[in-house]
Amino acid sequence: MSGNVLTNPVLKTVKVKGEDRQICELRVMCSEYKSDGNGGYVQDDTRTFPVQVTIWHEGTAKRVYEVVRVGASVNVIGATYVRPWVNEQSNQAEAGVCMDAEKVTLGLQRVEAVQYRAKAQPDAQRATESAPAAF
């Protein structure tokens, strides 16, 4: 899943098998993709939804908390599930998409390839630059 971060990550301490562990939670806005009919896919802007992401690996959780901010593009790999709850204000049953992340990487929204070439130097200048200095 990939998308843009909706909230700054929150670092929490929870008990896991009797030990304290730091986890990180954040929300990511995702979009579904649909077939374009030519073997490719296009983003379906009408079907966007927030995903509650929980990072259980302590090292990854701390790093995401330090680096990721609102608006960042991220790619998340992990288990996705639907979690139901009751809205306390309306007393209605609701559900949301959640994900237990195994891996989180920053997304590249725009990549530019630039090729650098060394300036050509005259042979005489190149010879003096590479010659050892005289003492």
TrEMBL record:
InterPro entries attached to this UniProt entry: NA-bd_OB-fold, Primosome_PriB/ssb
SUPFAM superfamilies given in the database record: Nucleic acid-binding proteins
Molecular function GO terms recorded: DNA binding
Domain of life: Bacteria
Keyword list, A-Z: DNA-binding
Protein name per UniProt: Single-stranded DNA-binding protein
Lineage of the species this protein comes from: Bacteria, Pseudomonadati, Pseudomonadota, Betaproteobacteria, Burkholderiales
